[in-house]
Write a structure and sequence with these properties.
Elements lengths: L2 H12 L6 H26 L2 H12 L4 H11 L4 H20 L6
Helix pairs in contact: 1-5, 2-5, 3-4
Length: about 100
């Protein structure tokens, strides 16, 4: 799935697919930040202790966040892109679910 397809799917889930470009862009930016935040808390649990230690060593050696992220993505037992897509779409579903009143659930 391309970024555009992912964002369009998330916007459709949120019911914002017919909104203005400005609303869509702002919403996608918020969804990306939310997804990255969720992944930041999940990804460490997917790494082995040795892999987590290697990341600490990379940080100590002055590696950039981009270099560390690239290494971590390659080390994950799942494809980061698939994890990102699933997390974003799950977040969109959760937002919609939380909008519903108890009677609608």
């Amino acid at each position: 799935m391309t970024d555009t397809q992912l964002y369009e799917q998330a916007l459709t889930i949120l019911g914002l697919d017919k909104e203005s470009k400005e609303v869509k862009v702002a919403t996608v930016q918020q969804m990306v930040r939310l997804t990255q935040s969720r992944l930041a808390s999940v990804v460490p649990s997917l790494l082995t202790d040795d892999q987590a230690e290697h990341i600490v060593d990379m940080q100590s050696a002055g590696k950039t966040p981009e270099e560390i992220m690239q290494w971590a993505e390659a080390a994950l037992p799942v494809k980061y892109r698939e994890l990102f897509e699933a997390t974003m779409l799950d977040a969109a579903e959760e937002i919609v679910s939380n909008r519903r009143t108890p009677a609608q659930r």
